[in-house]
Specification:
Layout (H helix, E strand, L loop, with lengths): L1 H40 L9 H36 L2 H5 L5 H39 L15 H4 L5 H20 L2 H23 L7 E6 L24 E8 L11 H4 L4 H10 L3 E7 L4 H29 L3
Antiparallel strand pairs: 1-3, 2-3
Helix pairs in contact: 1-2, 1-4, 2-4, 2-6, 2-7, 4-6, 4-10, 6-7, 6-10
């Protein structure tokens, strides 16, 4: 069963692994230079990145995000559905191989290969990008929003160990859709849609609750509130360049949520005078954020969530195969 499963998987596995290996070699060849540049430039590294370095930075991140989705679509979804479409699953069952062994062998071999490949490329990208991430954490910037702290949702999912959780989840999800739908192309489409929804839902509603958040109260000053709007988000300078701001709330002089501006605010003629009016009225901003120290606790927690979901989907795959397939 192991050899048969590998023969069925080897084409798409070879293609993906070859592409990832090529990227890993490129990262290994250029990474030491980037680390050396960071040693001399410090937080100014971001402004000294070459076009090639910048391209690799973004290509690496995008690749890590795409690999789990591709695994779910091209490894997971066809793994069983292709055999169900052609009827070859009955050949194995009629040769004394139980349904459970047949499926568990496929899930184990393909799933572990997919997860290991994703983990290796994610760790390679994390290692290569670490000088840039350290420079950004120290306050380095290229005067754009292109480079953000690694705890920021824009790149958190492309760092550390969490992509291996995504890969395991996407793979198991694809297998389940393949078993239930029994047609490869619809199963691939359903896998992509569901995986994308899960990936977007995590930073929007769930991730911020996986580790204790910190809260600070920021006084109104022109420097900190240059782009302020009532109940705005991510416009307040917390003085911490490496945090993920998850919520902001404007408070009045009594410390309660403000639902309207003071009268002086409506008559101000410039941003500075508007901010000064709020400061004189005793208004301030309450900012809730995830600190940089929570990066790894969030990584472990989110990885655990997706690995748990993957195990649950795997159990459901086995149950469906034993009870519903014929």
């Amino acid at each position: 069963m192991i050899w048969l499963t590998w023969r069925q998987l080897r084409t798409q596995a070879t293609a993906v692994l070859a592409a990832l290996a090529a990227l890993a070699v490129l990262l290994a060849a250029t990474g030491p230079h980037l680390a050396g540049l960071h040693t001399t430039a410090g937080r100014g590294l971001v402004q000294q990145l070459s076009p090639t370095d910048t391209t690799l930075y973004f290509v690496g991140g995008v690749t890590v995000l795409l690999v789990p989705a591709l695994i779910g679509m091209f490894w997971g979804a066809p793994l069983v559905s292709r055999e169900l479409e052609t009827g070859t699953h009955r050949l194995a069952w009629n040769q004394g191989v139980t349904r459970t062994r047949w499926l568990v062998t496929k899930l184990t071999l393909a799933g572990l290969t997919a997860t290991a490949a994703t983990a290796l490329i994610s760790l390679a990208v994390t290692w290569w990008s670490s000088p840039v991430d350290q420079a950004v954490a120290a306050g380095g910037s290229d005067n754009t929003d292109n480079f953000v702290p690694r705890i920021d949702p824009a790149i958190f999912s492309a760092r550390g160990i969490v992509p291996l959780g995504y890969a395991a989840f996407a793979f198991a999800l694809g297998v389940l859709f393949g078993i239930v739908i029994r047609r490869t192309l619809p199963a691939m489409a359903a896998t992509l849609a569901t995986y994308t929804a899960a990936l977007l839902s995590m930073p929007m509603w769930i991730r911020e609750h996986l580790a204790p958040a910190a809260t600070i109260t920021v006084p109104f000053t022109h420097d900190r509130m240059a782009n302020y709007l009532l109940d705005s988000v991510s416009h307040v300078d917390t003085g911490k360049p490496d945090v993920w701001v998850t919520a902001e709330r404007t408070l009045d002089a009594t410390g309660h949520p403000a639902h309207a501006m003071p009268p002086a605010y409506t008559d101000c003629e410039s941003i500075k005078s508007c901010i000064d009016a709020l400061a004189k009225a005793g208004y301030h901003q309450r900012v809730t954020y995830q600190a940089a120290d929570n990066f790894w606790p969030l990584q472990w927690a989110e990885t655990g969530v997706f690995l748990g979901l993957a195990v649950g989907l795997g159990v459901l795959c086995v149950w469906w195969t034993r009870r519903r397939l014929s």
